[in-house]
Design brief:
single chain; mainly alpha; 5 helices
Length: 101
Amino acid sequence: MLEYEAVLKRPEQLEASGRSVAMTDSFLDAFSLCIEPVHLHYLWRPQLRDPADEMVLETALNGRAAALVTLNSGDFTAAANFRLPVLTPGAFLQFLQEEKT
């Protein structure tokens, strides 16, 4: 959650989205009501090239995520070892749209 906040409040992100810091705070407040904290019980490290991504994979696995959604899908090839699909945001949105119909 803290990483979402840090990234969304970067000046270039605010400019690209056309949102203010206050709007971003409102979004994050609403988003925080939809999330479920995940406690990391198992440390699978090292699995990935980037040590900073290890917590993302561990959270997805411990949270029993149906998929990991990222623009950096190439960085999460090890997720296949755990049968965890890695989807781009576009592929995930397409999946959701297909699931609706």
